[in-house]
């Protein structure tokens, strides 16, 4: 059967080109549907002799034959749990195409091995309600193009909503369970801070661990995690029912009441609203706990806000409307089990100059084994990161994430999630962080003409031009919006996603209502990095979500022109390229000529400091080598004033307001951002 690419197919998949091909005749003995389960080859011949053979890329065929809009993942009812897995290329083996290994919460050997049944290339299995709370993994026998043979792959559910502590098994967690909802959760939409217009938005960019990991006013179990955002004073208690801590003039003068447990780092408390007078009259050390207990007996105490919460409240009062959290989904590079982390002795770091390579050298010795990573190396988009939870092996990561969102809303912030749909950390049949490429190899990841995975976004670029990839992105956004009630999404490398996908996402989210979905979708803000580069540049794989292509859609895009004009160069350009603030006062900068008008409110997003590079102070210092720190601070103030008064929404990077440069970890290969 002779065929060639038509004009329509070229428009849909411009990267393929007009290449003539010969497809096998579809017959009862060789149906095209069965071909997708095998190794497929195209060969060229001359005079009856084969002179060229190449493998085929099948995503277009899979989209045409097996696009699916039914349920996926775990579906819970009152009586049963049903699992659905889309795997059209999976093959039969002795125990079935896909096996469900059901395990109890403690892990160990499977309690039960269930064979999934296939219907129209969607595999499913049903079980009793008692499955809820158990772990499972899929075992799929499938041809994998990277090894050119059939592989038996074990993988998590692509639609996982919970995980084991080691992230190797999917947890059957029902997000609608009342046990996973904080008090008042279902009515949170009524407590959301008011947002009259997207043009009123100002965004503060923050890393969850940065916020509280070293904050001694936060309970030790909460530091660096979701619950640190809930450290707010809301309830007074009697001394007889709790532990009390005072730090009076130094670390050695610490004493406790009611039990005497030494816990220097627990949350602070104030007695009777008159802390200073009490301290003056009652100075005890750790050896006088009994006297201390008698002195405060019967007094009421109040739990104080943590230092971080106090600072967030100041930012809210200053006009910040949204808090953008760096990636909070399940990412690689940080073990969710905290007892496996390594750390550098902070006393050693304090003896080293903060602007030297010596601190870096100390930190690099434990890189990939500590508890810090920026999170831009996604494994599963739909699961909250376990290292930020107090217990990663239970559904509490869901409950604690919801408590965080609720607490931030009540402070006065709307919550923005950083979503990274442009790439995945793992691929292939053997990588422990690979999921999608084990279930349907060759489909979810974008490939070049040689069949190799594209890596321009970082590693393992995803292909949103494929129907089921787009569907997975949309379903994931819907879960975060409805089940976690977040208020916005910041798309990492949005230009690597198709414009069609972004417009569908915006329309889907804005159609949500409080009556039907429990949230007001019209107030959800969407923005991202509309950079146009790599294989998607100039619409190379379809019309992509780049800055100019998004014009008129109402989707926000970062404005690199005003940033680069002020600081000079670009985040990855030559460090000596100067800008308006860093030395080019007397020279015109043609980058300004691009900033002229806005067609739709809320579509220009201005930020002085990208989160994947140095702080502004470091940028200025690199470009103005012979100026003092005071001069740099003044230039930063000039930059900030410019950014706060230009046209568009404002994104402020955490610590910028304090003019603090963080030197702990750079953005380089094998770094916190990429985790490569």
UniProtKB/TrEMBL annotation:
Composition skew (Polar residues), residue ranges: 1-12
Gene Ontology terms, MF aspect: hydrolase activity, hydrolyzing O-glycosyl compounds
Superkingdom as given in the UniProt entry: Eukaryota
InterPro entries in UniProt: GH (IPR017853), Ig-like_fold (IPR013783), Ig_E-set (IPR014756)
Membrane-spanning parts: none
Stretches the record annotates as Disordered: 1-20
Similarity remark: Belongs to the glycosyl hydrolase 13 family.
Protein name: Pullulanase 1, chloroplastic
């Amino acid at each position: 059967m002779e065929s060639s690419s038509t004009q329509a197919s070229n428009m849909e998949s411009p990267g393929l080109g007009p290449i003539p091909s010969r497809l096998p005749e579809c017959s009862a003995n060789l149906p095209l549907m069965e071909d997708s389960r095998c190794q497929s080859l195209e060969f060229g011949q001359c005079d009856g002799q084969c002179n060229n053979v190449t493998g085929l890329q099948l995503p277009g065929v899979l989209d045409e034959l097996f696009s699916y809009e039914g349920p996926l993942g775990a579906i819970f009812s009152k009586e049963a749990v049903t699992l659905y897995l889309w795997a059209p290329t999976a093959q039969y083996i002795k125990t079935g195409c896909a096996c469900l290994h059901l395990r109890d919460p403690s892990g160990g050997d499977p309690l039960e091995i269930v064979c999934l049944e296939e219907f129209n290339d969607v595999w499913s299995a049903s079980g009793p309600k008692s499955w809820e709370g158990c772990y499972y993994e899929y075992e799929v026998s499938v041809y994998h193009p990277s090894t050119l043979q059939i592989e038996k792959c074990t993988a998590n559910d692509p639609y996982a909503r919970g995980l084991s502590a080691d992230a190797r098994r999917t947890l059957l967690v029902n997000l609608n369970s009342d046990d996973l909802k904080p008090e008042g959760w279902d009515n949170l939409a009524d407590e959301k801070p008011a947002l009259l217009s997207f043009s009123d938005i100002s965004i503060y960019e923050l890393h969850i661990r940065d916020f509280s990991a070293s904050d001694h006013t936060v309970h030790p179990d909460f530091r660096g995690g979701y619950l640190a955002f809930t450290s707010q004073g809301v309830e007074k208690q009697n001394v007889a029912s709790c532990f009390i801590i005072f730090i009076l003039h130094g670390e050695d003068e610490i004493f406790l009441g009611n039990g005497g447990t030494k816990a220097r780092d627990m949350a602070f408390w104030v007695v009777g609203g008159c802390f200073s007078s009490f301290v003056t009259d009652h100075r005890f050390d750790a050896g006088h706990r009994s006297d201390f207990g008698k002195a405060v007996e019967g007094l009421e105490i109040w739990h104080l806000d943590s230092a971080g919460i106090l600072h967030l409240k100041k930012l809210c009062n200053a006009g910040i409307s949204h808090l953008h959290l760096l990636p909070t989904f399940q990412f690689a590079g940080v073990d969710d089990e905290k007892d496996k982390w390594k750390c550098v002795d902070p006393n050693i770091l304090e003896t080293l100059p903060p602007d030297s390579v010596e601190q870096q050298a100390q930190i690099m010795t434990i890189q990939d084994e500590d508890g810090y990573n920026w999170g831009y190396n996604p494994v599963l988009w739909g699961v909250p990161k376990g290292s930020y939870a107090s217990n990663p092996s239970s559904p509490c990561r869901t409950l604690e994430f919801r408590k965080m969102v609720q607490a931030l809303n009540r402070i006065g912030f709307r919550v923005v999630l950083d979503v990274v749909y442009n790439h995945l950390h793992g691929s292939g049949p053997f990588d422990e962080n690979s999921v999608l490429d084990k279930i349907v190899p060759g489909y979810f990841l974008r490939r070049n003409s040689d069949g190799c995975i594209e890596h321009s976004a970082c590693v393992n670029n995803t292909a949103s031009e494929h129907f089921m990839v787009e569907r997975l992105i949309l379903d994931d956004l819907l879960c975060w919006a409805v089940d976690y009630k977040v208020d916005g999404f910041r798309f990492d490398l949005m230009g690597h996603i198709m414009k069609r996908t972004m417009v569908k996402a915006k329309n889907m989210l804005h159609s949500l209502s409080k009556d039907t979905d429990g949230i007001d979708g019209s107030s959800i803000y969407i923005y991202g990095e509309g950079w146009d580069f790599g294989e998607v540049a100039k619409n190379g794989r379809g019309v992509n979500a780049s800055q100019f292509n998004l014009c008129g859609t109402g989707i926000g895009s970062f404005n690199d022109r005003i940033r680069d004009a002020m600081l000079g160069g670009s985040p990855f350009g030559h460090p000596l390229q100067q800008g308006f603030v860093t030395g080019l006062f007397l020279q015109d900068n043609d980058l300004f000529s691009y900033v002229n008008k806005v067609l739709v409110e809320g579509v220009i997003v201005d930020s002085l400091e990208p989160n994947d590079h140095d702080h502004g102070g470091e940028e200025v210092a690199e470009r103005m080598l012979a100026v003092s720190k005071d001069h740099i601070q003044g230039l930063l103030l000039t930059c900030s004033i410019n950014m706060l008064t230009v046209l568009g929404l404002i994104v402020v990077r955490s610590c910028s307001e304090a003019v603090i440069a963080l030197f702990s970890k750079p953005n380089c290969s094998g770094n916190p951002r990429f985790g490569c």
